């Protein structure tokens, strides 16, 4: 790609030392919170603190060493932020385990181990993220397949009204979490090739450039898929997430805001229809509008969540001093309510800032990335996290209707945790590529076969 | 593609800002409302589990929290349940009554005056304890009142006693019968508590009612003190004058002929004021009421506290009523001796006696003497507050003399205490319909420098011959003796 020589002259520092220092701080958060749970509930530091802390530290150090080895220029902030969130999540899940006599935290630590293992594997295997662009349609088919899996009789499983789980023997799994990552690659691969065609001017209506009718195909397809998820799987959150993700990437690829308007209008139309015709969706919206209409029934979870946040106030009741087990699923979708109750507004804002940092770092990687595919993938992954956090946190704090998504890195749940660790690996890989002093590859990111169908590009890519 | 990426960054920033603003609103501005939401079991549970402060009478707690080993950390205990139930009220999950309710902020430790203590607890990592509330009640007067009233009305009876220190307004005794055991309602066995509550709620004698402040009845002849005060204060009547009386009195307009129920001392056309008071002559006070006029009588009643509620220390006290609107003479005449629509609580009649005893100055009644921290340090002491001047000092003195005569040689003789001058007035209020009357007795002693003013109200005393002097007098006497030792 044609590039500005002045910009290329700037060399990013590796800053692996800073990453290590921040990781130590993140460990202090995770292990400290774990100790505080023991102190708050039993009045003593948990006896397994050394084993637990050691395990957590080992995972973090392994991740750090691997980054040092295979992605030395990667962004130094992402990994510590993720480690802090994951550590805090583990401590809170442990806290709820103590109250409810469950053992989700052990599972979570196991899944974190799997997540870090896949993180390491991803960094080793994907030495150049552009390789993934070759499998656009394969990945697309796989993710569609994953989305359909829960609908299949036998392995599909309906939990809390949403049919988004599959169960294979003792293992249960949410394929949507993986499909989410794969879809980002599919969209990026498709859009980077077709962006110019999609960017061609259409009709101009009321200051908005609307796309041409025949270019509406992909967006219509995505719209259909999203509505299917909404109606067939009753999963408002995933539906919103996939469609929002697609719109954001389409907008970034084509630089045409018109897509956002068309897409939003289509989604709102679909959602309004779903509100009227799909009982599950209508119920969620009704609960959102007035959770106190049935505080002991349908509104119970949200009302308890709001009470939890309020009871926490500014600095919280202290770990172990609240009653987060009043909220059903508090270890899962509602983990932020547990944090709000026991650690207060300060911790909730801190957690939101950590998520904000992840999103900001992802978008920064997208900005400095030199290839279109990488840019789109980084934007997509950053937007997935931003949208997901917004939908979940907005749901439990009654800003938007409640949906069934997990809080990345915090919520108990293997599929989500593992998928999010892989997302981090890919973001680190892209930022490593982007921050490297010498571009190893320049114009080879586009498949020559695909290039034929492209409209010749006349403007500079750096606009 | 960088321009849209920057736009997306801004968009994400807005999303996160929206989340932060919303959660700040939720945890800061909306938190108080949510915490006070009636359905919020979380907060109720924490409050129920907390070490609440004690309610103290004299040196002993009448409500305190003891450690409990069930799912709540502390259990509320009432060591003398029957004696103080109407004052303490009871603590139940997510609700409380009586002082437990009106002093909830102190007892639960949420009061701003306990802020420093809360900070200290926070630093010391101790759970915060609620503050204590010390009452004005005199434990001996309370016991005397309770037992004397119980003896007077019998086991099935209903009634109330209120004793006030006239110079300050301190409530020395407040009893309501029938009573109940608040321990049964405060138990952590919610099923048993619910059953106990339903039983009390279904009891037609209404044990949960604090009759001292929540039951208003015709005050009967004790209201003659108010009529006499209006007469003396108006200047139209002097204590040495003869007042109009007669065996019967037929006011203008419709209505029954008023008589004196056989008290022949009242029969003369003109009698002394002392005779009128001592023999509780209905005709005399009916005539005086008509001559004074409705406005003068109402003003006097309101100066004593009718038609307003000046007692803040317990929730849901009711106003005593002096009827408003143009009264025909026949009704005004009945009002003059406490019938028609005049209604008073026992506390109100104790306030009337206390105001007369205190040279005409009505003090605001109060029950909370002192608010303390959990370590018994005084945080605030209630200062006696002058409510208003009900009658002039001279009129008060004259009225006192009349009431002393009523005890010495009149209907209130049962309350006489040897070696002391006692002022008092009986009352027997007709209910009509063949029902037994309500009995009243108000008194204060020593008359020249009163330390205690008492009102006794007897609502039901099955199997007893109800009269103000016969049933109420001994109760008032017992309470006065307990205070004066």
UniProtKB/TrEMBL annotation, chain A:
Domain of life: Bacteria
Catalyses which reaction(s): [GlcNAc-(1->4)-Mur2Ac(oyl-L-Ala-gamma-D-Glu-L-Lys-D-Ala-D-Ala)](n)-di-trans,octa-cis-undecaprenyl diphosphate + beta-D-GlcNAc-(1->4)-Mur2Ac(oyl-L-Ala-gamma-D-Glu-L-Lys-D-Ala-D-Ala)-di-trans,octa-cis-undecaprenyl diphosphate = [GlcNAc-(1->4)-Mur2Ac(oyl-L-Ala-gamma-D-Glu-L-Lys-D-Ala-D-Ala)](n+1)-di-trans,octa-cis-undecaprenyl diphosphate + di-trans,octa-cis-undecaprenyl diphosphate + H(+)
Segments crossing the lipid bilayer: 20-37, 49-70, 77-96, 108-126, 138-156, 176-193, 214-232, 238-254, 259-278, 334-355, 376-397, 409-428
GO cellular component, one term: plasma membrane
Major subcellular location class: membrane
InterPro entries per the UniProt record, alphabetical: Cell_cycle_FtsW-rel_CS (IPR018365), FtsW/RodA (IPR001182)
GO MF: lipid-linked peptidoglycan transporter activity; peptidoglycan glycosyltransferase activity
Biological processes per GO annotation: cell division; regulation of cell shape
Compartments where found: Membrane
Keywords (A to Z) from UniProt: Cell cycle, Cell division, Cell shape, Membrane, Transmembrane, Transmembrane helix
Membrane topology: Multi-pass membrane protein
Spans annotated as Disordered: 439-463
Annotated pathway: Cell wall biogenesis; peptidoglycan biosynthesis
Record EC number: 2.4.99.28
Protein name: peptidoglycan glycosyltransferase
Source species: Nocardioides thalensis
Automatic annotation (TrEMBL), chain B:
Any one of the GO CC terms: plasma membrane
Segments forming domain Penicillin binding protein A dimerisation: 52-133
Domain annotation Penicillin-binding protein transpeptidase: ranges: 159-481
Enzyme class, spelled out: transferase
Pfam family, one: PBP_dimer_2
Keywords: Glycosyltransferase, Transferase
EC numbers, comma separated: 2.4.1.129
A single MF term (Gene Ontology): glycosyltransferase activity
Biological process (GO), any one: cell wall organization
InterPro entries associated with the record: Beta-lactam/transpept, Beta-lactam/transpept-like, PBPA_dimer, PCN-bd_Tpept
PANTHER family from the UniProt entry: PENICILLIN-BINDING PROTEIN 4B, PEPTIDOGLYCAN D,D-TRANSPEPTIDASE
Protein's recorded name: Peptidoglycan glycosyltransferase
Native organism: Nocardioides thalensis
